[in-house]
Amino acid sequence: MENTYQDGDNYVCADCGYEWPMAAASNNDAESDSVVKDANGTVLNEGDAVVLIKDLKVKGSSITLKQGTKVKSIRLVGGDHEVDCKMEAGSFMLKACYLRKV
User: How far apart are CA 19 and CA 9, in angstroms?
Assistant: First the structure.
């Protein structure tokens, strides 16, 4: 994501403050085998469409992602924020627990 940066041996998400080791980011093949589930326990796959189940405030800006917003063609990535997506408000990495498969 464009708002992440390197800090020593870690990557840092400027939006939420989450940090993860650089070594884990280079092992995406091992993490891609893990199963990502939405808020209802349904397995998410690359390219699925999802809906936000809760209003989410974006840290560092006045943007709020509204409940019920449909997101098309998601991409699954490793780390704490499992879902990478593009919306009208920009590109975001979201946690799967705030999404529901359509």
Answer: 10
Do 29 and 17 form a contact (C-beta atoms < 8 A)? no
DSSP letter (8 states) at residue 37: B
Domains in the chain, please, with CATH?
A: 4-101 (2.30.30.40)
Question: Does the predicted model carry a pTM greater than 0.70?
Answer: no
Q: Which two tokens stand for residue 65?
A: 């992602």
Q: How far apart are CA 73 and CA 34, in angstroms?
A: 19
19-21: strand order across its sheet? 4-7, 10-13, 19-21
- Average pLDDT estimate for 57-82: 91
At 3-18, the pLDDT tens digits run 788 888 888 888 887 8
Average pLDDT in the 17-33 region?
63
Neighbours of 49 (CB within 10 A): 12
- What number of helices (H) and strands (E) belong to the chain? 2, 11
